[in-house]
Specification:
Serine Threonine Protein Phosphatase 5, Tetratricopeptide repeat; 69% helix; 172 residues; mainly alpha
């Protein structure tokens, strides 16, 4: 193999193995208020399904940091992260749905997400879920509880126990 061909091969291998995005680099940039870099680092990860990156993009859209403020877009990213059981996303999505800030108010869905968050032991979620329940009819509460149970059942069926995963993402 010629030296030039070897150089090209090694360079291609290095480029292929270099991470396209780095969550920690995005976090550092975000903490330094360099939102453009944070977005550049987190967006590819979020699109690949990284629940922490999805949650953080939701925060950026919610606060309008590095992107135009867009509550519907924030809710979409929170929903993607919440569907993976990320507790902070469960809470934020529940709150957005309860207030209807920039999206359609939906107490049933808000109660469902906050109920799932409360099941993780988060007392703030439990308190907010209970406040929402005071605004709902018994049939709507039952529907929200049913949806939460079904969601949890599907999560448990689709996940295998992983001792390296954070406790909030373990099957119950």
């Amino acid at each position: 193999m010629s030296a030039r061909l070897l150089q090209t091969f090694v360079l291609a291998a290095l480029v292929a193995s270099a991470p396209a995005a780095d969550f920690d680099a995005g976090l550092k940039a975000y903490q330094e208020h360099d939102y453009a870099t944070a977005l550049k680092e987190w967006q590819p990860l979020a699109k690949q399904g990284d629940r922490s990156a999805q949650f953080n993009l939701g925060l950026m859209y919610f606060d309008g940091q590095g992107v135009p403020q867009d509550f519907a877009e924030a809710a979409d990213w929170f929903r993607k992260s919440a569907r993976q059981g990320f507790v902070k996303a469960l809470y934020n999505l529940g709150e957005l749905l309860a207030t209807g800030k920039g999206i359609r108010k939906d107490y049933v869905e808000a109660h469902m997400w906050l109920n799932l968050c409360a099941a993780s032991g988060n007392t703030t979620c439990a308190a907010h879920r209970d406040l929402i329940a005071k605004k709902m009819k018994p049939a709507a509460i039952a529907e929200a509880q049913h949806r939460a149970s079904e969601w949890q059942r599907k999560q448990n069926a689709s996940q295998e126990y992983n001792p390296d995963a954070p406790p909030e993402n373990q099957p119950r």
